[in-house]
């Protein structure tokens, strides 16, 4: 049945009659409640095809220290890089400060016009797609991206594969600004969470205001008022991506442990072994032996 739909979808894409379907909306509660919008299967096939074409084109423009939703990157690579920065900045001494920020309602706040402008600019520069070296038709591809983007009234849906790529393309503008204009060496971003290290706290206060203005004026984004702080990295480390990161070791965040406990408590018996394997995989990246042994779920 699905095989019969593919030629129909192909023809719709070729002749420009493709129209994006209606989303199914539901709420997921993990560390916080998130509204997930799931596209129909037909449209998810299109999303994958679009990402396969445009991701290699934009990947080469991204900075090294952007870690979300990229091949050979991810949470653990970001934490490892942060530890390296903490050891290098100021020689890893006690007078190192961190500017840690995230963006208020990031996915909901992405501006369609700005995003389309960034896609148009990027696609215009590229003419080939690796590895097949197939010619790209920038404007028809841009029209397809616009179909996906405008399938919701504002922002981009968290449930779309394309949204992860679009979100990285959007904040690549911030990455380039921080690296090329502000000249920050110790900068890491994981989606809308980002941080800068420096031995000068006053310098970080000034940089935060520059970043705040750039996000507002260039990308129509707002720094989260309660999650944009400047603090010394010692003695409490840096709370980052579910871990508490110190110069020479990593610990599990207490709230992360409590969340996993609640998750295990509510799991049916047939899913517990997979969940335990995931938990062990997560904790092996931290100084967590006592934490693991203390959880009765592993007995």
Q: Give the helix tally.
A: 11
Q: Based on helices, strands and strand pairing, what is the structural class?
A: alpha+beta
| Distance, first to last CA | 46 Å
Strand residue content: 15-25%
Mean of all residue-level pLDDT scores? 86
Poorly predicted segments: 127-136
What are the SSEs and their pairings?
Elements: H1 2-15, E1 24-29, E2 33-38, H2 41-59, H3 75-88, E3 97-102, H4 106-109, H5 112-125, E4 128-129, E5 134-135, H6 138-149, H7 161-181, E6 187-190, E7 193-198, H8 201-219, E8 229-232, E9 238-240, E10 243-245, E11 250-252, H9 254-265, H10 272-283, H11 289-294
Antiparallel strand pairs: 1-2, 3-7, 3-8, 4-5, 6-7, 9-10, 10-11
Helix pairs in contact: 2-7, 5-6, 7-8
Which keywords apply here?
globular, 299 residues, 4-stranded antiparallel sheet, alpha+beta, 11 helices, 49% helix, single chain, 11 strands
Kindly describe this structure.
The chain is an alpha+beta fold and 299 residues long. It contains eleven helices and eleven strands. The protein has a four-stranded antiparallel β-sheet with strand order 6-7-3-8, with helices on both faces. Strands 9-10-11 form a three-stranded antiparallel β-sheet. Strand 4 and strand 5 form a beta hairpin. Helix 7 crosses helix 8. The longest helix has 21 residues. The chain is globular. About 3% of the residues have low confidence.
Question: How do you describe this structure in short?
Answer:
It contains eleven helices and eleven strands. The chain is of the alpha+beta class and 299 residues long.
């Amino acid at each position: 049945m699905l095989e019969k739909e593919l030629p129909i979808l192909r023809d719709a894409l070729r002749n420009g009659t493709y129209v994006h379907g209606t989303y199914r909306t539901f709420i997921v509660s993990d560390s916080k409640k998130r509204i997930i919008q799931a596209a129909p299967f037909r449209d998810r096939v299109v999303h994958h095809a679009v990402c396969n074409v445009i991701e290699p084109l934009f990947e080469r423009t991204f900075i090294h220290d952007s870690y979300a939703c990229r091949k050979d990157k991810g949470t653990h690579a970001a934490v490892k890089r942060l530890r390296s920065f903490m050891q290098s900045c100021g020689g890893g001494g006690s007078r190192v400060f961190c500017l840690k920020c995230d963006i208020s309602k990031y996915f909901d706040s992405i501006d369609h016009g700005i995003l389309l402008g960034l896609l148009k600019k990027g696609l215009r520069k590229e003419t080939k797609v690796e590895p097949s070296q197939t010619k790209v038709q920038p404007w028809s591809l841009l029209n397809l991206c616009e179909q996906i983007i405008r399938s919701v009234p504002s922002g981009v849906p968290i449930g779309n594969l394309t949204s992860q790529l679009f979100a990285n393309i959007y904040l690549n503008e911030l990455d380039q600004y921080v690296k090329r204009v502000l000249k920050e060496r110790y900068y890491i971003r994981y989606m809308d969470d980002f941080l800068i290290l420096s031995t000068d706290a006053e310098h970080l206060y000034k940089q935060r205001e520059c970043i705040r203005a750039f996000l507002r004026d260039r990308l129509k984004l707002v720094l989260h008022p309660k999650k944009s702080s400047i603090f010394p990295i010692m003695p409490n480390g840096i709370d980052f991506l579910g871990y508490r990161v110190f110069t020479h070791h990593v610990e599990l965040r207490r709230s992360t442990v409590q969340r996993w406990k609640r998750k295990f408590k509510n799991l049916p018996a047939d899913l517990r072994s997979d969940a335990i394997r995931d938990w062990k995989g997560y904790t092996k990246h931290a100084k967590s032996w006592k934490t693991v042994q203390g959880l009765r779920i592993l007995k």
